[in-house]
Automatic annotation (TrEMBL), chain A:
Residue intervals passing through the bilayer: none
Keywords: Disulfide bond, Electron transport, Redox-active center, Transport
Pfam family name, one: Thioredoxin
Protein name: Thioredoxin
Name of the encoding gene: trxA
From TrEMBL, chain B:
Superkingdom of origin organism: Bacteria
Entry's family note: Belongs to the ferredoxin thioredoxin reductase beta subunit family.
Catalytic activity line of the entry: [thioredoxin]-disulfide + 2 reduced [2Fe-2S]-[ferredoxin] + 2 H(+) = [thioredoxin]-dithiol + 2 oxidized [2Fe-2S]-[ferredoxin]
Role, per record: Catalytic subunit of the ferredoxin-thioredoxin reductase (FTR), which catalyzes the two-electron reduction of thioredoxins by the electrons provided by reduced ferredoxin.
Protein name, entry field: Ferredoxin-thioredoxin reductase, catalytic chain
Length: 105, 122
C-alpha cells in the first residue's frame, strides 16, 4: 500500500529519499484517481525496496501540487535525487506506469 | 437542526440536478458512463460539491490555484471546452464508445451516488 505524504513531509519523504519515489497526486472527487489507486498499490508491492510509492491529496496539500504545476488529476510523478525526472498523466494501465518507472531504476 | 436539514435538502437538489445533467448530456453527445459506476458517481458528487460551493460545476479532476477565478474563466466548468469541442473528458464522466473504459449506460442510480458519498464521508 502507498503511504500518504503531505506538504510538510514532502521534503523529507520524497526529496530526501535515497531511492526513487513515485508520487500519486490525487483528489477525493476525481473519478480516474479511483481507477489508478489500485494500480499504484500494486506497483508499491512489486517494487518494494526499489521504489518508494506515496500519494498526495492535492485538496489538502495545495502547496506541493502548485509547486510542481499539477493541473490534470491524477498525475503520477517520479522523483530521483530530489528532482522530478518523469511523469504520467491520467488513469494509465499498469504496464505504462511500470515501463516509465523502469527507465529510472 | 432546522438549518442543517435545509442544507441537506439543498445538497440533494444540486446532486439531483447534476445527475440529470450528466445523463442528458451523455445521451446528447453519444457518450457513455464508465463501466465502473463508482467513477461516475464520485465525479457527479464532485461536480455537485463545486456547484454548491462555487456556483459552477468546476471539473473535480483538476488542481486549481484559485477556484473562484477558474469558475469565472469558465474553461473547466462542466461540460468543459475540451469536451464540447472534442468530446474529451479526462475525468471519465463522458466516455466515447471506442474507449476501453466505456460502459453501456447513460443513466446512473441515485443509490450508486449515495453509496459513494457515504463511503467518502469520514
Amino acid at each position: 500500500m502507498a503511504d500518504s505524504v503531505t506538504d510538510s513531509t514532502f521534503k523529507e519523504v520524497v526529496l530526501d529519499s535515497e531511492i526513487p519515489v513515485l508520487v500519486d497526486f490525487w483528489a477525493p472527487w476525481c473519478g480516474p484517481c479511483r481507477m489508478v489507486a489500485p494500480v499504484v498499490d500494486e506497483i508499491a508491492d512489486q517494487y518494494e525496496g526499489q521504489v518508494k510509492v506515496v500519494k498526495l491529496n492535492t485538496d489538502e496539500n495545495p502547496n506541493v501540487a502548485s509547486q510542481y504545476g499539477i493541473r490534470s488529476i491524477p498525475t503520477l510523478m517520479i522523483f530521483k535525487g530530489g528532482q522530478r525526472v518523469d511523469m504520467v498523466v491520467g488513469a494509465v494501465p499498469k504496464t505504462t506506469l511500470s515501463n516509465t518507472l523502469e527507465k529510472h531504476l | 437542526m432546522t438549518s442543517a436539514n435545509t442544507d441537506k435538502t439543498q445538497d440533494d437538489k444540486v446532486l439531483d440536478a447534476m445527475k440529470s445533467f450528466a445523463e442528458t448530456y451523455a445521451k446528447r453527445t453519444d457518450t457513455y458512463f464508465c463501466s465502473e459506476p463508482s467513477v461516475t458517481a464520485v465525479v457527479i458528487e464532485g461536480l455537485a460539491k463545486h456547484k454548491q460551493e462555487l456556483g459552477a460545476p468546476l471539473c473535480p479532476c483538476r488542481h486549481y490555484e484559485d477556484k473562484e477565478a477558474e469558475v469565472k474563466a469558465a474553461y473547466w466548468n462542466c461540460p468543459c471546452v475540451p469536451m464540447r469541442e472534442r468530446k474529451e473528458c479526462h475525468c471519465m464522466l463522458f466516455i466515447t464508445p471506442d474507449n476501453e473504459f466505456a460502459g453501456d449506460k447513460q443513466d446512473i442510480a441515485m443509490e450508486e451516488i449515495i453509496k459513494v458519498r457515504e463511503s467518502l464521508a469520514s
